[in-house]
Amino acid sequence: MRQKVRLIQQYIPWLLLLLGIDIFAAFSLWIADVQAFYAMITVILLSSVLLFSSVCGILVHREEKRNQAFLAFLNKPDEYQEELLIENLCPAQRESVRLLGRTLRNKQIAYESLQMQIDDYEEYVESWAHETKTPLSLLTLLLDNRRDELPAAMDSKLDHIRNRMQESIDQILFYARLKSTRKDYLFEPVHILSCIEEVLEDYKPLLEEKQFQIQFCMSDDTVYTDQKGLRFLLRQIISNSIKYCRNEPELNFNSFEAENRYVFVIKDNGIGVRSCDLPFLFEKGFTGDSGKERKKATGMGLYLAKEMAGDLNITLQVNSEWGKGFEIRIFFPLVDSVAEFRQNSHPAPPAQPFDADSS
């Protein structure tokens, strides 16, 4: 009803003019013959009401038909929809619609061409990432089976190269997964301690080389999430702790429950992050001003971690003091089943810093 009123409002000046003519005709009849005016007053009122109702109905019908044709034209601006729209317009508007149609079609052709290029590029990159897994697997097999035959320095360098390659490939594949319209997440009970131990095993040579001290203050609790996605998220965090460590590096893991959520905490004693960088830490491509070590960073690791956390309904909060380490808290909703998880699932709040004193 409101839509129809808005359609009629644009014709108010013409309707008022029609009303004025009607009143003027009735007034002229009253001046010419008062008795005839009183005899015709009922017919005049009924005719006026019928006239205005008919005019308003016709105007509303024409406007609705025109709006439908315009929306169909915008949805598919081909020549057929353009002609259907032109049939409902006055001659002064037709040339403008033809110009709009040509412009939209040219833009659509350019968009489709660009989309094809992007699809081809993404397909090539994903294919490259999968193909690169073969030599990476061979390198892993070589290091696992011939580690004793390699010099320590070479073994360390090759292991570092392998981890960097694996991390980059994982980022490419998970980036494609995050941007895909269809996502194959499998939510199931995941033992958080077992998951972090698997990630640490992947980085074991680097952790041993840098002599990391690892401490656990937690039990093997269960959370409902996608195991592959969670493992990828944890890899990004552990990788950063290794990259930006200092002398006598440490990694601490603990957990607790707060506000009906399970909180998993990862803390290191590395170089940390400046307070001015914390609000932007999860932005795409952001490397910050936290020393020369971060100048070589791509700014993609924590960005992808944040995107993955959003898909998994996980909240991330970070805290850091320059020169005193980095801490990240991962919040999982507490549920007893996958069905309950889906029922209570809602978009995770954006990743953000937190006040360590208030926690």
How large, in whole angstroms, is the Cα Rg? 34 Å
Largest beta-sheet details: 6 strands, mixed
Task: Give the helix proportion (percent range).
Answer: 55-70%
> What is the number of helices?
11
> What assembly state would you assign to the polypeptide chains in this entry?
single chain
Structural class designation: alpha/beta
Beta-strand percent range? 5-15%
Query: Which strand order do you get reading across the main beta sheet?
Result: 2-4-5-7-6-8
Q: Give the N-terminus to C-terminus distance in angstroms.
A: 53 Å
**Could you tell me the number of beta strands?**
8
Shape: elongated
- Mean pLDDT across all amino acids: 80
Low-confidence stretches: 355-359
Order of helices and strands: HHHHHHEHHEEHEEHEEHE
